[in-house]
Design a protein that fits this description.
single chain; 298 residues; alpha/beta; Conserved hypothetical protein from pyrococcus furiosus pfu- 392566-001, ParB domain; 5-stranded mixed β-sheet; 15 helices
């Protein structure tokens, strides 16, 4: 099957060719020494080590639930197609071998990049800027249109267009999006002031307090017209106790905890996870392991 025919059929098509080995375990997994694996050269993630240390703690306690998907390169080395973050966490955990699924047959650079993008985006592993840069690479290096990129990633064309537009923002605003200091929605609102010297003024207003995306859009519209924003346009900053509680929960659970407070009282607590292994650990910590295991097995 040619590279072009295989592209666009989704991650299942790219990973469908599995190969059994003599050292395959009883559960169908092939165990390979950690040092025998090589990273995907087309990996789109920039900040790959954001939570690798937390995942390594889970691997030390419970092992690796999801196998890493690999192929063999021209030199016969195992090259990671999906699961590089788990591999790096396994190195930190000093695991001697890891479970893999071997897919035979070479992949082009375009397929390697597409596969890494799909695997990470489907698991929400990449931040908006990393997604945008991955889409831009597919367009610039492999000459794919936004429609073709959207088809391969399961997105609307407008979603791809909005992602790529984020790369027009100044570097310091892109960094804030990557760090989640501001959201991609806030960043898209700031794009309306692109090339306008008041863009930085709006950016400082947004990052200084709990400003909604809608409020940011209204702020940018006023600044674009030369109007002065009203005083105290931003909601109060998140209280110190709330920030402290977020940090304590994140450290205790080994996962990003996000506490959002409503102006009228109440709020919500959001726990983020990036791998099934991390979800498994969270469920144990919260006393919900049996319930989550049943859902994962369905």
């Amino acid at each position: 099957m040619t590279s072009q025919k295989r592209l666009g059929k989704g991650i299942g098509s790219l990973l469908s060719n599995r190969h059994a080995q003599d050292n395959e375990s009883g559960d169908g997994r092939l165990w390979v020494p950690v040092e025998d694996l090589q990273p995907n050269p087309e990996q789109p993630r920039v900040a790959l080590d954001k939570s690798v240390e937390r995942l390594s703690e889970s691997l030390r306690k419970h092992g690796m639930m999801q196998p890493i998907v690999v192929t063999r390169d021209a030199q016969g080395q195992y090259q990671i197609l999906a699961g590089e973050r788990r591999w790096r966490a396994a190195q930190l955990a000093k695991m001697k071998s890891v479970p893999v699924v071997l897919r035979e047959g070479s992949l082009s650079g375009e397929e390697l990049l597409e596969l890494a993008l799909i695997e990470n985006i489907q698991r929400e592993d990449l931040d908006a800027i990393e997604k945008a840069k991955g889409c831009a690479r597919l367009a610039d290096t492999y000459k794919l249109t936004q429609e073709e990129i959207a088809e391969r990633l399961g997105y609307q064309r407008s979603t791809v267009a909005n992602l790529v537009r984020l790369l027009d923002l100044p570097e310091h605003i892109q960094e804030d999006v990557s760090r989640e200091t501001i959201s991609a929605g806030h960043a898209r609102a700031l794009l309306k002031l692109q090339g306008n010297p008041v863009q930085d003024q709006a950016w400082r207003e947004v990052r200084a307090g709990e400003v909604s995306v809608r409020d940011t859009e209204q702020l940018c519209a006023r600044l674009a017209k030369g109007e002065r924003p009203p005083k105290h346009s931003a909601n109060p900053r998140k209280p110190a106790w709330a920030k402290d509680l977020q940090e304590r929960l994140s450290r205790r659970l080994g996962a990003k905890a996000e506490l959002k407070l409503h102006s009228r009282g109440g709020g919500k607590l959001i726990l983020h996870f990036q791998e099934v292994d991390q979800l498994d650990q969270l469920s144990k910590d919260l006393g919900l392991h049996d319930e989550v295991s049943e859902l994962l097995d369905e």
